[in-house]
From TrEMBL:
Residues 1-22 form the signal peptide. InterPro entries: DUF1091 (IPR010512). Keywords: Signal. Pfam families: DUF1091. This is Protein yellow. The lineage of its organism: Eukaryota, Metazoa, Ecdysozoa, Arthropoda, Hexapoda. It comes from the Eukaryota.
């Protein structure tokens, strides 16, 4: 299996204007840019889309290419369309077929490089080609696409262009790296106290949790507990709800299923109670400490995209649905080759 090292999506709006005399022109407007994974190869944290005038948005910022790209890698672009503009994208039978990277640059990019060179410092590709594509820092200033290159037969709508960079020489093994950022308790101080819990840097690549959590009440099946997740692709605190969650269950059921399966990950870092096969109910109030706690990233599926993530636990009263305690736990997720 060959790993996809860099996956990025660019959303843009496409619509048609009729200036009269039966002539149509295409208007292309950037919406946003997201990097799903590939932080070991490319950094686009300083890349932004902004409104330039009433009808056009542009791309600005700096991207850093961390490695030289040669024909070891293949690169391609495929497209999906949301006709209603409601982010329900359907794959479209149109793409730029994946090619070895230098071949892609020398064929597709070279033909249209004039669209990019006036607004960026991307290298010029001569007739004899360019290989490898050099690592370095590349800027874009008020970059927009000349919509005259878009065929008028391409239908209107919200489009998603996804670029894939694939290592063709790899054995396909990648690992996920999770780094704690911070924790916020939004409400629930009459249920628990986390004032002394802190995130600290443990080494160059990992942060850990330390401190004491105080549960002020016993928790039984009067309460239900679950997690929701949101992701910020750019790391700019603009979080979007992600279609993934740990469904709410009465808390004793939650402990007997979800927690019990993974409790070994917590027991070695804390004095949380062991949950036996017959379960534990209620979860007893008291003081529980954590020391240098971290999440074993091998538990995270490789398909989860990179970015900044917010995990929000919710404690509710089953009968009324009242939210009695919630918070947000922030982590950064990256991937690298093993």
């Amino acid at each position: 299996m060959r790993p996809i090292l860099l996956t990025a999506t660019c959303a843009l709006a496409l619509f048609l204007i009729d200036p009269g005399d039966g002539l149509l022109r295409v208007i292309l407007d950037f919406d946003r840019w997201e990097v799903n994974n590939g932080s070991a190869f490319f950094n686009m944290e300083k890349f932004r889309v902004r409104k330039f005038n009433r009808t056009i948005s542009v791309m600005n910022g700096t991207g850093v290419l961390l490695v030289d790209l040669d024909n070891r890698y293949s690169y391609g672009v495929h497209f999906a369309r949301s006709a209603q503009g409601n982010n329900q994208f359907n794959a479209y039978p149109m793409k730029l077929a994946a090619k070895p990277f230098c071949d892609f640059i020398n064929v597709y990019y070279r033909e249209y490089q004039h669209l990019f060179l006036k607004n960026t410092n991307l290298p010029f590709v001569p007739p004899e080609g360019l290989c490898p594509f050099p690592n370095g820092t590349y800027w874009a200033k008020d970059l927009h696409l000349d919509s005259s290159v878009i065929p008028v037969v391409v239908p209107e709508g919200l489009w998603r262009c996804t670029t894939d960079l694939v290592d063709t020489h790899s054995d396909g093994l990648m690992k996920v790296i999770i780094d704690f950022n911070h924790w916020d308790l939004i409400n629930g101080t009459d249920i628990l106290s986390m004032e002394s819990v802190r995130v600290r840097k443990y080494n160059r690549t990992m942060s850990v949790l330390n401190g004491t959590i105080t549960f002020l009440v016993d928790l039984d099946n009067t309460y239900e507990y679950g997690f929701n997740f949101a992701r910020s692709a750019q790391g700019n605190n603009q979080y979007h709800a992600y279609p993934m969650k740990i469904a709410s269950k009465p808390i004793c059921d939650f402990l007997a299923t979800y927690y019990r399966e993974f409790q070994e990950q917590f027991l070695k870092f804390s004095n949380l109670p062991h949950v036996p096969e017959e379960g534990l109910c209620p979860f007893p109030k008291g003081k529980y400490w954590v020391k240098d706690a971290y999440v074993d990233s091998s538990l995270i599926p490789i398909v989860i995209p990179e970015g900044y993530w917010k995990a929000s636990p919710e404690l509710r009263i089953v009968k009324t649905g009242e939210l009695v305690a919630t918070g947000s736990f922030y982590v950064k997720l990256t991937k690298e080759l093993v």
